[in-house]
Every structure is written in C-alpha cells, then in structure tokens.
Amino acid sequence: MAETDRQTEAAKFEADYTPGSASAGIVQPRDVTLAGPPDELTLSCGRRLGPIRVRYETLGTLNEARDNAVLIIHALTGDAHVAGLHAAGDAKTGWWDIMVGPGKPIDTDKYFVICSNCLGGCSGTTGPADPNPATGRPWGLDFPIITVEDMVHVQRLLIDHLGIEKLLCVTGGSLGGQQALAWPILYPDRVATTMVIAAAARLSPQAIAWNAIGRNAIVSDPDFNGGQFYGGPLPRRGLAIARMIGHITYLSEEKMRWKFGRQLRNAAGPAYDFSSEFEVETYLDHQGNRFVERFDANSYLYFTKAMDYFDLVAQHGTLDAAMARASSRFLVVSFTTDWLFPAYQSREIVNALIRTGKRATYANLKTDHGHDAFLLEFPELHRIVRGFLDESAKQCRVR
Amino acid sequence: MAETDRQTEAAKFEADYTPGSASAGIVQPRDVTLAGPPDELTLSCGRRLGPIRVRYETLGTLNEARDNAVLIIHALTGDAHVAGLHAAGDAKTGWWDIMVGPGKPIDTDKYFVICSNCLGGCSGTTGPADPNPATGRPWGLDFPIITVEDMVHVQRLLIDHLGIEKLLCVTGGSLGGQQALAWPILYPDRVATTMVIAAAARLSPQAIAWNAIGRNAIVSDPDFNGGQFYGGPLPRRGLAIARMIGHITYLSEEKMRWKFGRQLRNAAGPAYDFSSEFEVETYLDHQGNRFVERFDANSYLYFTKAMDYFDLVAQHGTLDAAMARASSRFLVVSFTTDWLFPAYQSREIVNALIRTGKRATYANLKTDHGHDAFLLEFPELHRIVRGFLDESAKQCRVR
What DSSP designation does B34 have? Predict the structure, then answer.
C-alpha cells in the first residue's frame, strides 16, 4: 500500500477520534535517594545495593484520598520523561506525550502520573555509569546484574516515598510491560489495576537471541574496554549495531514495505558499491548513530539481560501459580503484527488470569505498526486505555 | 512441543518414505578458467572481469543426448561441494547430500549434476580474496560489485565449457533460488525447467536490513582494515555477528521454541552475569565461531549485496515483463514458516508466471523449520523435487 493510501486510511480511521491536544506543560525531573544504609536493597542476584538514586517525574495532582496514582514504566530505551516538556521551546516532548496529558487517555487532569527511570538506567537513576562506592570509578560491569523484579522493588520504594499506599494503575509496554506484569504479583496489595501492553510472561528464544546478538556487538567493540569506556571513546559501533537490530524487531515486515520499500537513494540506479543505498539502510544508519549520543552501552547490556531473565514460569513453577498471587484487575493488549512479543504470549497471560479467577480483559489490536504501535498515534489503543482506566477509577476503591 | 514428540511426529511422517541412502561417493573438485582475454565478462556494474577461475563439481554421467544436466546453485554460504565426499572418511558430506545422490530425489544414476562456487565466493571461484592482477595484492573491496545476473553469466560460461546446450533443470534455494529464477529469464533457450526454492523476485526491506546490519558489523570490525585483512588478523567478531543474525533469520520462531526453549546452561538457575547462559546463546556463539573458520568476510559482503540488488521488477519494469522472457517450466516452493523469504513472495512469482501463460506449479510446504527447511530431511519436499524432475525428464526434450 502506498504511503498516501495509508494516510487516507488513517484519516478515515480517526474521523471520530479527537485526541487531547493539550500538553502536560513543563515537568520538573526530581531525584530521590532510597535504600540507604542499613536498608540497602537485596537484589535477585543476592547482592545488596544502596543508596539508590531515583530520577522521576510526576504529572497531575495526587488527590486527598491518594487513590488516583498511575505508575507508568518505560521500555528499553525510555526514561522518566513520559510527557510534557522540560523547558519551554524543547523540540521533543516526553516519550508517551501522545497518551499522557490533560484530556489525553491517561488524563493528568484526573490522575497523578508517576514515571521513574528504571534501576540500571542511564537517565538519572543509579546505574553502571555511576561511581562504585568501593572504587570511586564508574561501576561498569561490576554493577550487579539487575532483574525486572529489582526494578519493581525500587519503584515500590519510590511509591512509599511519595506516600502512596496503593496505585490505581500500573502500566507500560515492552520491558515496561514486563515490569507492569510483575508488580501485582510482587505487591498484590499495592496495585488495583494493571495494563500490560505488548509484553510477555517470558521472552521467546528468538527475542533472547536478538538481545544476545546486540550484547555481543557491544562487548565486541574494541572501545568497550571491558565496560570501562567512560571518559574515553565510546563503543559506538557496537551499540549502533545493537540498536539497528532492535529497530527491525520493533517494526513489522508489512510496515517496512510501505515505509521504505526498495527505494534507492539515487533514483538513477544502483551505485555498485557498499554505501548505504536502500532507504532502509540510511534509516538504520541514522537510528544507530542517533542512539549512541543518548544511551549508555552498559545500561543496554543490563536492561536486555533483565528482559531475558524475566520468567514468571521459572520463578513460580507455572504461570497460574504466578497469576494466582495477584489481586489486581488486568487489561492485556497485544498487536497483530508484533513479532517481538507475539500475541500468543499475551493470550498465555490472559488464559492464566482467567484460569485463576482474575478479572482480566484482552485486546489484540489490528495494526501494521508492529511492536512499536504502543508508542504511536493509535486511536483504538488510546480509547481502550482511556476506557479501562476511567472504569478502574470508578470501580476500584484503592483504600 | 517437546523434542521427543517432534521425533515421533517425524517418524510417523516418514513411515511411507525411504530416502535414498547411497552416497554419491568421492567427488573430485575441478577448476576451469573462463572469460579470459579478450572475452572478459562485462559485469552489471559495467566493469570487465577476467580471466575467471570457476571451481565446480559434477556427479553422475552426461548422457549422449546431453539432455540430463541439472545445475544446482548454492546459497549464501554454500560451495561447489553439493553431495558426496571429497575423500574417504570425510566427516562431512556436501551441503545437499540429502537431496543429491544415487536413488535420491536428484538422482545421480539418472542425472548429470553440476554445482559451481558462485562468482565472488571464497571456495575456489574468483573472488575478493584472489590477487588483483593490477596490484598483485588480494582484491579486497577493489573487487567489482557482482550481481545475481553476473553469477548466472559465469555459470552459463561453465555450461558452454561442459558442452551442454540446454539444461534439463536449474535449481537452488535462497540466493541459489534467486539465481535459478534469473536463469530462464537471461537464457530462455538454455534451460528447460526451473525449480525455485525459498526465494523471491526481490528481497523485502526487512531482509535487506538484516544483510545491511551484518555488513555493518563486518566493516565495523577494527580488523576489517578496509577489506585488506588477508595475512593479518581476520574480522572475526564482525563476521560472527553477521552469521548470528543470519542464523536467526533461517529459523522459525516456532522451531527456536522447541529447539532451544529457555533452557539455561546451568539448571540450578541464572548465573547473574553476562556469560552465554541460554541454550540459544551458546548455539549462536558456536555458529558464529565456526563460520569465521571457513568463510571470507569480503565474500559475505559481496554475496549479501548481490541478494539485495536482485530485483526483477526494477530490471524489467514489471514482474510479468520479466517472466514473459522465460520459456522454462517452473516449480516454485515456499515454506509456511519461512519469514526471510515469505510465501507471499513465491506467490508473486507464480502469479506472474500464470498471467504470462507459463507452465508453473507451486507448493507452499507446511513445516516449522523456517527458511532452512530446504537443506533438511524433509520428505514432502524430496517427493516433490523427485516428481517434478522425473516428469521434466519425460516431458522436456531439451534438444
């Protein structure tokens, strides 16, 4: 389908849909230090970590009942800046600005939205680029391996700090969806409803393979220097390759056909050399190069490893045993062309929820945007999130 | 499905199937020098190349009518050694031994089988590791860019050399299938029947992307040295990453689930470090390391670029215009779980053949082996190849 046809289809699709257009405005990032001695966090790996600095942002107002808090969790390369701007005139809004703001599906006029940078990250929360107290040098690969569960524990400490006993909702997509899914299992009394988007109870071997190849590219980069590259040349080439692989897995084959086709840079014909000629090649070069400017290669290693390890079946014996621990209501969303977190994985979650008597609903949304769909203009997803969340607020008394 | 269930299913499937078990025996590789001056080959890029050394092997006997010749073309990492052994006691047979030999589907008791290493390769045919006559040094990246069509032209020179006016059949899978498809379009009078397996008239943008990322990994390796790595350290890490990416695209997601699952090397639990723990990781490490022992990184660049460039639509205006040139009969085969060369691409070829009045038949074979299925024990594929080829021999008088 040609790009113009797509646009027409999109326009038709959106004829009855008016997204909130107001921005959440200027949002101030905040830092808080948690898990200080003697209350260091005991990680899944057995090591203790603390104090832990957490970068977070909030939007909207916590009501007096403290029952309107929505925790949003970012994906592999996201951060705490979920919506709005950091300063007037910023060229870029937060990563889920399309979903979060006044009048938007996650409506900051109604809800108190919290988003924090995940443990091990590179956007303000303690991670491998921070100094190792034992040496004064950056942690690098001496930073402990962290898991999805460890990330959730840190978020729980943040929620404590904010004086919130029970979240109205926890949500996220991809790695954020894995964490959202872990929340009501780890802290059944602390979350009323859960929206799991484009996620899985455990990664498929194919998804592990992509992560493993990406990590391999990073550690093979001669500038990786065993993870101690801070202050020196960065492992740019390896990290760019990891990002390129990632990008292809976020797009559907269908979308790549209409987005890139087989268009050559030079319409006159092939250059007959090894330059990046096809449109998809220049796209990959651009994505790879842009990414290395903003992301830490070590955080990429730690986050993908956390994704790989996450396995509710291995941890609880069966998926039913995992889900039986939750008392949350659930919305599970998958996308028909998501081949990184295929729909069958969402159905596995939903079936386990139904078998264990949980209140769960499931939407497999038709789209050709693939895994990335949760980040894009996608009216049907937005209506579903709005509907579920507003109903949650009515039904779920969090106290 | 567990591995044992699969085996039971396979056993059942094969109950009525007896593959030929006899080996083609010892096969002698041969070299011939073609396109010597003043008859150098004019390549698609406009440059002239010659003399060209071609490594090839033959099995069976060319009959007196010279009408029983079958040209088999290898895929990305194959070579001229299609079946049999090079020496008694060899641990490894040729790459399509399962398909080619006495009593096998491509029966060397009936057919004269030819297989040559493709132009630009690293297994005996002229390629980037050979000396550039202008400098005496290995060509490296000064070797001209070659196309699928160039490879076919060299095969045609070999067929001339062997005194064969018309091939009974030309066949191959993947890159070999692209060449097989190009043959009857370039040389309609020289081929009676064509078997195109797991191939496409043009690569999808997703498939181009995987090739591009693999090339990027190779040229980013500091040991690549602009392609002049011969005699020095090889770009092992980059080539291994390219191979790992390739391997995942050759397997279906389904097969990876039952082949690897989420099995950890240590059953006691996670190691909580960045070692290769999941079975799929050790598989990738092994495949990557093994590949760099046997394949030239520059040939990988040239072959993947040839795959990317191949585009019958761009070359002929429409697929119909391309197919209209052929006078061959066609068998087109795809595999249900092949996501690198998806079945829709085979249907595009077949539909164009039907529209242009060609004799074409199509099989979309159900398998969970993905793109690799053409290389494996696959009774239904073997029956189909045997049936089509034997019928071809009856119907198609090549003279």
Answer: E
Please report, as a single letter, which amino acid is at residue B284.
L
Confirm or reject contact between B352 and chain A (CB < 8 A).
no
Interval B332-345 mean pLDDT: 98
User: What's this model's pTM, rounded to 2 decimal places?
Assistant: 0.94
Say whether B215 and A274 touch across the interface (CB within 8 A): yes
pLDDT for B395: 82
C-alpha B269: how far from chain center: 40
Q: Counting every residue, how long is chain A?
A: 399
Looking at domain A3-202+314-395, does it have CATH number 3.40.50.1820? yes
Does B324 contact A at CB distance below 8 Å? no
CATH number of B3-202+312-395: 3.40.50.1820
The token pair at B320 is 């119909």
**A201-216 mean pLDDT:** 98
- Give the pLDDT of residue A21: 64
pLDDT of residue B335: 98
Strands B100-101 and B191-197: what pairing?
Answer: unpaired
Assess B308–A contact: CB distance below 8 Å, yes or no. yes
Q: pLDDT above 90 covers what percent of chain A?
A: 90
Helix %, strand %, coil % for chain A, to 5? 40, 15, 45
Q: Is the pLDDT of residue B316 over 70?
A: yes
| Cβ contact, residue pair A206, B253, below 8 Å | yes
Domain boundaries, chain A: 3-202+314-395
- Give the pLDDT confidence score for residue A170 in this predicted structure: 98
Q: Tell me whether B106 touches chain A (CB under 8 Å).
A: no
A280 contacts on B by Cβ (under 8 Å): 205-206, 208-209, 212
Mean pLDDT confidence for A116-131: 98
Here the tokens at position A42 are: 């005991």
Average pLDDT over residues A35-43: 98
Q: Is B260 on the interface with A (CB under 8 A)?
A: yes
Residues of chain A found within 8 Å of residue B343, distances taken between Cβ atoms: none
pLDDT at residue B396, rounded to an integer = 67
Q: Enumerate residues 6+ apart whose C-beta is below 8 A from B397.
A: B67
Q: Which of A23-27, A44-48, B12-16 has the weakest average pLDDT?
A: B12-16
**Cα A38–chain centre separation:** 31
Cβ pair B188, B89 in contact under 8 A: no
Residues B91-103: tens digit of each pLDDT: 999 999 999 999 9
**Nearest chain B residue to A214, by CA:** B241
A357 sits in the region (left: phi over 0; alpha: psi -120 to 50; else beta) called left
pLDDT of B8: 44
Count CA atoms within 13 Å of residue B373 on its CB side.
28
What residues of B are labeled active site?
174, 338, 371
The full length of chain B comes to 399
Compute the nearest-CA separation of B354 from chain A (Å). 23
